[in-house]
Design goal:
heterodimer, A: mainly beta, four-stranded antiparallel sheet, globular, B: mainly beta, six-stranded mixed sheet, 12 strands, about 0% helix
Chain lengths: ~110, ~110
């Protein structure tokens, strides 16, 4: 069974630009979550999608958004990039059973210059 | 709210030493508990889990026991290897949400 696939692996963007990251979950998993990892803040939850609907949202500004498609693939978008958005963005997929483990992709390393 | 506290790092050990990384949690009810590992340049991998009190999760020589009396889930390994060098995260799912809360991570370095 293929794991969680995130693309691209690395991105360099300029302040003010916008970026879209992609995530393909494990086959059969309909829940996709996104996390931001930084040295200062650690792992922080961004949002979670299930069956194309956002079910949970973390404490991030509206510049961070996401969506999920009918095949469970998900994208997250960050608009008007700031230097502080530089981070590793991790996607995780889970089965529809609540409170189970999540399986993570390798992440997208975003650098904002 | 739900939270996880891990011991401060970094931790540096010699090969074949005994490892303990402490993890305590605050949560509603009795959630599942997880340990994840992150190798350099990689995402998180599930290392082990326990789904109820007194369960022991184990994998690759690592073990952790779910202790509800002390709200702890300490990670242990009897003899570490250089290849165990990584960052380790303790985590739990927030009740009613498909969302994990993580500890701050413990960086482990094993010297030959």
């Amino acid at each position: 069974k293929a794991g969680v696939t995130q693309t691209p692996r690395y991105l360099i963007k300029t302040r003010g630009q916008q970026v879209t990251l992609s995530c393909s979950p494990i086959s059969g998993h309909r829940s996709v979550s996104w996390y931001q990892q930084t040295p200062g803040q650690g792992l922080q939850f961004l949002f979670e999608y299930f069956s194309e609907t956002q079910r949970n949202k973390g404490n991030f500004p509206g510049r961070f958004s996401g969506r999920q498609f009918s095949n469970s693939r998900s994208e997250m978008n960050v608009s008007t990039l700031e230097l502080g958005d530089s981070a590793l963005y991790l996607c995780a997929s889970s089965s529809e059973i609540m409170n189970t483990e999540a399986f993570f992709g390798q992440g997208t390393r975003l650098t904002v210059v | 709210g739900d939270s996880v506290t891990q011991m401060e790092g970094p931790v540096t050990l010699s090969e074949e030493a005994f490892l303990t990384i402490n993890c305590t949690y605050t949560a509603t009810g009795y959630p599942s508990l997880f340990w994840y590992v992150q190798y350099p340049g990689e995402g998180l991998q599930l290392l082990l889990k326990a789904t109820k009190a007194d369960d022991k999760g184990s994998n690759k020589g690592f073990e952790a026991t779910y202790r509800k009396e002390t709200t702890s889930f300490h990670l242990e390994k009897g003899s570490v290897q250089v290849s165990d060098s990584a960052v380790y995260f303790c985590a739990l799912p927030v009740r009613g949400a498909q969302k994990l809360v993580f500890g701050q991570g413990t960086r482990l370095t094993i010297n030959p």
